[in-house]
Specification:
The complex is a heterodimer. Chain A is an alpha/beta fold. Chain A has helices at residues 27-41, 61-64, 77-87, 99-105, 107-116, 161-168, 181-193, 210-213, 219-229, 233-236, 261-274, and strands at 49-53, 68-71, 92-98, 121-126, 129-130, 136-137, 172-177, 198-203, 230-232, 248-255. Classes of the chains: A alpha/beta, B alpha+beta.
Chain lengths: 275, 75
């Protein structure tokens, strides 16, 4: 029998302190491992990957991995990503954002990056709460849930990140949970290969705050909740809106073709430089 | 036989590996760290390794069987 070292060691920055800063049972680590696994399977060169994050718990992810990485300002991961892709289309540009980072503070950039159809694979780690700052309501906190900023219950209805991305024009939209790791691998793989704006919502667990608010005591309870409340896209098609209330629809939701922004930009550049 | 290795230095005792092992190979020891109690039952499905948020579990398999049952299978 051969001794196997964990695959992530090939991609971790050895100068960083481990164990990482995320809480026990946090889903970010599970996603990070999946992303590394898919990148390794596809044999992408470390130098060809650009991993960009905003602020928040998920913002710490690029700090730990040895790709070209950028830890940007709150909500602005997609703006930096757009610039990088246009300046050097050869690079594979990936953004990792939290729910607050992507659809609250960076909501504007989120819809316009999807509208422009810039070739960026975006992963939104949705844990339904602002975790790093102490458990305030985010745009994906369910209605009525008590949080640090809504002591009598959240009065705002929550966003459906995937529908938002679809309406804004993203060409690939999918959803998985960190419980469904094999599905997550397949969706990450598809998103990385898509020629255009790809958005994958990764339903994750904030065990410190959201778990407490949602009355789910442990990371295991939260992952069991993900398992029991998930419905595949195929099954969801046969169910009514009422049946799907409160359920997580997982799988590929949108997969369509549309010319990407940087391709059009490059062809325009080539055409105009002839003159 | 597959060998499940747990790196205690990185483990945060979240219990995910114990709860979701389909074969109940792992159990918590007196310090709440996961420990292998039934190594012969391990099928090498890698779910514990894949779901560990702290990269603290590695399932040692030979390269051939890893390819067959690894995350890439069923794609």
């Amino acid at each position: 029998m051969r001794q196997t070292e964990h695959l992530v060691h090939k991609y971790l920055r050895s100068s960083k302190r481990f164990p990482h800063i995320w809480c026990a049972g946090c889903g970010i680590g599970i996603f990070m491992q999946a992303l590394i696994r898919v990148i390794d399977q596809n044999e992408y060169s470390k130098d060809d990957i650009v991993l960009i994050s905003g602020i928040g718990c998920s913002g710490r992810l690029p700090v730990y991995v040895d790709f070209n990485t950028l830890h940007t300002t709150h909500g602005r991961a997609l703006t930096f990503a757009t610039g990088i892709k246009l300046a050097n289309p050869r690079l594979k540009v990936i953004t990792v954002m939290g729910d607050g980072d992507a659809v609250a503070i960076g909501g504007n950039h989120f819809i316009h990056a999807a509208r422009r159809n810039v070739e960026i694979a975006s992963f939104v780690l949705n844990n339904s709460v602002y975790g790093m700052t102490g458990g305030q309501s985010s745009p994906t906190t369910p209605y009525g849930v008590i949080t640090a900023s809504a002591p009598y219950g959240n009065l705002e209805p929550d966003f459906d990140i995937c529908r938002l991305a679809e309406a804004a024009g993203a060409v690939f939209v999918a959803r998985a949970t960190v419980y469904h790791t094999q599905l997550l691998d397949r969706l990450i793989d598809k998103a990385l290969k898509k020629k255009g704006a790809a958005v994958v919502e990764v339903v994750s667990q904030c065990t410190t705050y959201a778990g407490h608010f949602l009355k789910l005591k442990s990371p295991v309870d939260m992952m069991k909740w993900q398992k029991n409340n998930s419905v595949t896209v195929e099954k969801a098609k046969q169910q009514s809106e009422a049946e799907l209330e409160g359920k997580i629809v997982i799988g590929v939701l949108v997969d369509r073709e549309r010319p990407s922004y940087h391709e059009q930009y490059q062809s325009l550049l080539a055409e105009k430089s002839k003159i | 036989m597959n060998k499940v290795e747990i790196y205690r230095g990185w483990c945060k005792k979240c219990d995910i590996c114990i709860a979701f092992c389909p074969q109940k190979v792992l159990e918590a020891d007196e310090e709440s760290y996961p420990t292998v109690v039934s190594p012969e039952k391990c099928t090498g499905c890698l779910l514990c390794e894949m779901r560990c948020p702290d990269f603290a579990i590695v399932v040692n398999k030979d390269e051939e069987s890893r390819k067959e049952t690894g995350p890439a299978a069923g794609k």
